Amino acid sequence: MIFISFFFLTLYGIVFTIILSGFLKKNKQNCTNDLELHINVIIPLRNEEKNINQLIDAFERQSYKKVSYLFINDHSTDNTAEVLKEKLAKSIIDAHLINQHPNHNGKKSAIITGIKNARHSWIVTTDADTIPTEDWLSQFASAFANNNLFVIGPVINTTKKSFLSKLQNIEAIMLAGMSIGSAKLNIPVVCSGANLGYHKSLFEELKPYKDNLQIPSGDDQFFLDKIIESKTPIHCLDNNKALVFTQAPATYKELINQSIRWSSKNSKLKNKRSLYLSGIVFITNMLLLLNIFFSLLFSEIQLVFFILKFIIDFVFLSTVSFKYNRFSLILFSPLIYLLYPIHLLIIFVSSFFLSVKWKERPIEQNE
């Protein structure tokens, strides 16, 4: 077991060191002051009556004003449409509500509807439960003005005081670091549809949802899959001005549900980078559990494994946390480091028994 443990730890260390080097790589600066292009922001939404007001408030604070907002209502069963209409009637932004056709449902279908109704060539997508920073769209406009056809930005969670929130924030920070770091090295692993931009013609050319429209989740990953296949260059918005904050699940059960839903699509992607990375992370953390147990019974060499993995995780987490002003998370890292393998094990076991839902719609694991 010692050989296997240190083999995967070495692999784990190499992968995260490479990604971290990409994250630290200096981004190409956008040197454009003449920003006359118009942007369409597409927001697919379902049952978001509690989040609509704060999202529109964030849109009204945007420093970049040449924007049209398209809200695509995916058959909400609450008062989302009514709340949205009332808020937009008083708002200063150029926005339109489009209700999905009765025969069309799901986030991917909503995005396709948004693309078809977009008046402008440059597209940005986000989710209804997010809060973007004030210069968010200015960052996209600069990137688009430099003819970057596919642009990704970081997504992190809003902060709360609970321990569950700290766990989710650390997960989100690590994921943001992996997303930006790998993309900068032209080996993208993951991106988020909550902070994504592209040219309309690119979407129409690649048709990213043609073969997976029946799979409810994965709008971002399936698009990234097509980007990798077509070898389209990716531009990263890695600074704090491009941040998008998202609402984390309120309960641990919701977090497990989300984690299973996110991981279920990895095996369906043509490019297996995210699947391999997930596998390395999972196996290394399971080996950590075993080594903690055996370090109490047998040899101190298992303790070496424990310390080395902590150093790898701590360096990566602290670097990304400092970048995105999440310094306090570092204080919780030792405890979460011990509990995270158990969390992954719970997700793995639950995936065999838990009936996963998204927006009150069941998701079949084998779709």
The CATH superfamily of the domain at 27-165 and 186-248 turns out to be: Spore Coat Polysaccharide Biosynthesis Protein SpsA, Chain A
Give the overall average pLDDT.
90
Sheet-strand content, in percent, reads: 5-15%
Name of the level-1 CATH class of the domain at 27-165 and 186-248 = Alpha Beta
Low-confidence stretches: none
- Rounded to the nearest angstrom, the radius of gyration is 21 Å
Strand order of the largest sheet: 3-2-1-4-8-6-9
Do you know the CATH architecture of the domain at 27-165 and 186-248?
Alpha-Beta Complex
What global shape is seen? globular
Q: Compute the separation of the termini in Å.
A: 36 Å
Q: Which structural class fits the helix and strand makeup?
A: alpha/beta
Total E-strand runs: 12
* Total helical segments: 12
CATH topology of the domain at 27-165 and 186-248: Spore Coat Polysaccharide Biosynthesis Protein SpsA, Chain A
- How much helical structure, as a percent, in the residues? 40-55%
Largest sheet: 7 strands, mixed
Order of helices and strands: HEHEHEHEEHEEHEHHEEHHHHEE
